[in-house]
C-alpha cells in the first residue's frame, strides 16, 4: 500500500539520509515511501507534513529522558535529533552534557567529552557549550582519573580566555594530583594559568584578578611535587608564586622549604628561617618539617657548625615567649628573595608565617627524618645524632661534639629517651672509637655532669675486652673521683661484664644501626656539588651565564659529577636569554654524562630541553628528546607542546612538500616538523 501523502516527498539526498531514523517512527510504511521517493518529481513540495511533529516528538523524548536521568534513552534521542536537525537548543545540549558528565560510568563521561570536542570543532557551534558546563565536565573527568581528557577541557577553556573559579579548580586539582601523571598535568596547567594572569595584569585588564591562582591552589600542587619527587616543577611553581604576587600561608611555607631542600637551595631556606624563628610557640609543631629540611641541607653541605647552631636555636624556641609586637609583624606579609637577596631584579615571595587557611585541603606532615615533635618540643632523631657523631669524628672535633650534647641534654633527647652523651658513647664503643668515647666521658665530667655507672662500665668492659688494662685502671680511678666506687666490687664488675657481653652479642642499639647506614651512604654525593650548584643557580638567576659556565667547568675539572639541578639551572639561564643554540651544546654534555657516568634520566629535564628546542626551532633535537622519553616510557604532555608549536610555528612548512625542498638540510627539517606534527596530533 502506498500512503497518500507520499506525493509530497521530494527527491533529496537529505531525506534519504534520514530514512533510517524516520523508519523508527513509521514502521511498516517506510519501504513504500522510499519507492515513491525514487519516482517523485523534483517539482513536488519540499516540506514534509510530519517533519515538525517529528522534531517535537524527538525533543519531547530527549527532555523526558533527561528529566528522568535515563542516559541510554536520552543519548539515542539526541543522536536521532542531531541526524535529522542538527544540535538541539543550547540549554538542552548543555543539560545533556552535564548529565553525561555526572554519570559514574566512564563510557558516558567519555561520550560527553567526545561530544564537546565535536561541537567545538565546528566553528559555527563554538559558543554552544557554556563555560560552567566545561568546568563540570573537567571536574568529572578528573574525578574518574581521566587526567589527560580533563587537561584537554581545561586548556580548551583557557583558549577561550576562561579559567574555572578557584574553588572549583581546587577540586579539579584535588583529584588530578592523586597520580603522578595528574600531578604533571596540574603543574603544567597551573603554569599556563599564571602566564595568562600575568599577561592580563600587564594589560591592566579588569578580569585579571578573577583568574589569579590563590594560595590554596599553589599549596595543593606544590605538595604533589613533594610527594612525587618533582623538584624542578616545584621550583618553577615557587617562582610563579613570586611573579603572581600570591601571599602564602604557613602550610605552603613548609612545603616550599621541602622543595628548596630537594633542589639544594640553602640560602633561600635560611632567609625563611629569619622569619620562622619568630613565630609563637603554638606554631612550633607545624614548622617541625621546616627545621628538618634546613638541618638536612646543613648536613648535605657538610656544614656541621651551622647544623649545631640550628639545634641551639631550636632549643631556645622551647622557652619562647610570645611578643605582641612580633606577632603584629608576623601577621603582615614579608618578602623572601628567590635566588639571592643580592640580586637587584630578583624574585620575591610574600609569606605570612602565622597565617592558616581555614579551608586548606593540605595539611603537610612530611617525613620524620632528623627532627621529631615530642612532648611539645622539637627533638633530635637517632639519624640526626648519628650525623653529628660522624661529622665531628671525621673532623677530629670531639670536644665540640661533647659541648653540643651537653648543652642540649636537658632539652633534646634521642628517640630512645636516654641521655645524648650516653647514646653517643655507646655508639663510639661499638665502632671501636674508644678514645672518642673516653673524651666525651671526660668532657661530661669536666662540665660537672658525670654520666651514670652503666656508661662507665660499658667503656670499662670495652677496655677489658681489648686488654687495655692500663687505660682500664685509669678509668676505675676516675670512677672513684665521681663517687661511683661503691659499686666497684669485683663480683659486681664481673657480673656486669658478663651482662654487657651477652647483650652486645644479641642486639645493636637503634643509634648503632643508624650509624652503620649513615657511614655506608655518606659518600654517594660529594658535598661540594651543592656549593657549586648554589653558585650556578645564583649566576643563572642573575643572567651571568659566563660566570655560571666557569663554575660548571671547574666542577667538571674536579671530577665532581653534575646533578639534574646543575643542568636545569644552566638550561633555564640560557632560556631566559633566548640562547637556544647554547642549549643544543649543553644537550651534548648531558648525553655524554648519561652515556659514560650513569647520569639518571629525568622527565622534568627532558621537558625543559624539549620546550626550549621547540621554541628555538630545533626540530631534529625535539624528536631526539622525544625518542629518549619514549625509550624510558615517560609521560609527555603532548597538548602543551602542541599549544606551544601552534603559538610559534603554526604555518611552518604547512604547504611545503618534500619535492619542493631546496636543500638536504631543508628536507630533513621538513621531515622532523612533519613527524612532530603527527606526534602531537596536528592534521
TrEMBL record:
<feature type="repeat" description="PPR">
    <location>
        <begin position="528"/>
        <end position="562"/>
    </location>
</feature>
<dbReference type="Pfam" id="PF13041">
    <property type="entry name" value="PPR_2"/>
</dbReference>
<dbReference type="InterPro" id="IPR011990">
    <property type="entry name" value="TPR-like_helical_dom_sf"/>
</dbReference>
<protein>
    <recommendedName>
        <fullName>At1g68980-like TPR repeats domain-containing protein</fullName>
    </recommendedName>
</protein>
<dbReference type="Pfam" id="PF25245">
    <property type="entry name" value="TPR_At1g68980"/>
</dbReference>
<comment type="similarity">
    <text>Belongs to the PPR family. P subfamily.</text>
</comment>
<dbReference type="InterPro" id="IPR002885">
    <property type="entry name" value="PPR_rpt"/>
</dbReference>
<keyword id="KW-0677">Repeat</keyword>
<dbReference type="InterPro" id="IPR057440">
    <property type="entry name" value="At1g68980-like_TPR"/>
</dbReference>
<feature type="domain" description="At1g68980-like TPR repeats">
    <location>
        <begin position="54"/>
        <end position="178"/>
    </location>
</feature>
